[in-house]
């Protein structure tokens, strides 16, 4: 499974995004350690804070299938530059992926920028931070 296939999965699910308020459709795809791909799109709500990001949808689909380990991520939107994940989604990705997991940000025109979960969220808050010695 290639990065291009992951981008194409994100591109396809982006078509289903429900974004009547921002008009900004986003698609995301995560590949897990099993090789499976899970996809998600943003789903907005008239009560704006209740909307959910594409990345959150993909991670929810993954967990619903009983998987919890991501090895690659792709996010796509119709933007001039590859759109970086929002802060909350960086934390959500860090929950299920190590710092070296590649995250490819793409535009529908074909531009890509590949970063990592660790570079997106330096100084990640983890479960270890709640442990006392
Ligand atoms: N959005 C995502 O789905 N993922 C991101 O990482 C950035 C923002 C969505 C949320 C909202 O529906 C729309 O883009 C505009 O912010």
Key features of this structure:
5 strands; globular; binds tetrahydrodeoxyuridine; alpha+beta; five-stranded mixed sheet; Cytidine Deaminase, domain 2; 4 helices; single chain; about 30% helix; about 130 residues
Structural write-up:
The longest helix has 12 residues, at 3-14. With 133 residues, the chain is of the alpha+beta class. The chain has helices at 3-14, 54-64, 87-96, 117-120; strands spanning 26-32, 37-41, 70-77, 102-107, 112-116. The protein has four helices and five strands, in the order αββαβαββα. A hairpin with a 4-residue loop joins strand 4 (102-107) and strand 5. Bound molecules: tetrahydrodeoxyuridine. Tetrahydrodeoxyuridine binds at residues 19, 22, 24, 26, 42, 44, 51, 53-55, 83, 85-86, 89.
SSE topology:
Layout: H1 3-14, E1 26-32, E2 37-41, H2 54-64, E3 70-77, H3 87-96, E4 102-107, E5 112-116, H4 117-120
Parallel strand pairs: 3-4
Antiparallel strand pairs: 1-2, 1-3, 4-5
